[in-house]
Amino acid sequence: MIHILSINFGSTSTKIAVYEDDRFVLGTTIYHDSRQPGDIENISDRLEMRRSAVEGWLQENGCGSILFDAVAARGGLMRRIPGGVWKVNEDMIADLMSGAYGVHVCNLCACLAYEMYGKKGIPCFVVDAPVTDELEDLARISGYQGIERQCYTHALNQKASARMAAEKLKKDYKDCRLIVAHMGGGITVAAHKNGRIIDSSDGLNGEGPFSPERSGSVPALALVDEFFAHHWTKEQLKQRITGAGGMVSYTGTSDMRRLVSRSKEDKGIALLIRAMCYQIAKEICAFAAVLGSAPDAVVLTGGLAHSPEITDLIQERVQWMARVFVFPGEDENRALAAGALRALRGEEPVQEYHR
Questions:
Q1: What is the spatial order of strands in the sheet that 350-352 belongs to?
Q2: How buried is residue 190: exposed, middle or buried, by Cβ count under 10 Å (0-12/13-18/19+)?
């Protein structure tokens, strides 16, 4: 029996889970004061705070003495790499701790795993990291010299959901052609071909459908006019696109459960929800052109997939071209542990990170 520890840091949360093979044993989410991560400026202090949280929970639940076979950690901001399982090594730690590719608390996951277990000889992995980039060269051309399209997608849940779809199809993920829509506060739609994400909408940088928090593909010249009319700073404009766009800009909230409930009486909100689903469906259909034919399946996942009012509207527009699978939510800890298990069983190669 293989024992795997999974660690996933969010801005204000620490998610920990223990698995025996692919069976969930126990886990928790520890919430932190939203001011605390920002108040602690030294990255070493942040690491120590998270370490105390993880070690404390493991001790409290009798897991402190368990000899884990591997630790699976959420990937951080480092150089762009293909998806898959990557061994946590000194080069990776150096890039994550330096902040050279960006500073986020997720950088600390692999660092903590290495400090607690890697130095003892226990293998530590990151799986389908946030910096996963498998775009084909054709997909990188933006249409404006000096700006290259990049892959900012929900790689971990995208690939985990794609593998679930492949299992339903009784095929190997590497033999599938899939279109996956991750729908949460941000929305990304991606084309999966032979185990790689060959193209994806970049929801972070203002592509694709609008979402609860993000603007999506707003007409560029109109956005320029809006920018100068309001005299926004660079940071204010970025916030409008990535955090205060989409449903927030129209309704003042990104709480889709509340908006879906209100839509039953409010025709304006009902129209906005239909428009968001319309754009998601349109993006899904566009990615069939990337694959060159109808996909084996379309996959709807993420938090919004819990709402049949949303998934039904999308399915109505895309079910003509393929089967549609709905996998609500995103179990990142399970996806991390599953990647580590594949690596330990020799079902997936372990890649080595170099600076």
A1: 23-31, 13-20, 3-9, 70-73, 124-127, 85-87, 350-352
A2: buried
Residue 13's pLDDT is: 86
Q: What is the pLDDT of residue 104?
A: 83
Measure the CA angle with vertex 30, ends 26 and 34; round to 5°: 160
**Which token pair is 238?**
């970025």
- SS3 state at 297: strand
Q: Tell me how far apart the alpha carbons of residues 27 and 224 are, in angstroms, rounded to a whole number.
A: 47
Distance between CA 151 and CA 29 in Å, rounded? 28
Rounded to whole angstroms, how far apart are CA atoms 169 and 163?
10
Report pLDDT for 10. Answer: 83
Low-confidence ranges of the chain (pLDDT < 50): 35-40
pLDDT attached to residue 170: 98
Write b or e for each residue in 71-89: b if 16 or more Cβ atoms lie within 10 A of its Cβ, otherwise e.
Answer: bbbbbbbbeebbbbbbbbb
User: Hey, what are 252's tokens?
Assistant: 């003042």
Rg, C-alpha atoms of the chain: 21
CA 31 to chain centre: 20
The predicted pLDDT at position 29 comes to 93
Number of other residues whose CB lies within 10 A of the CB of residue 225 = 11
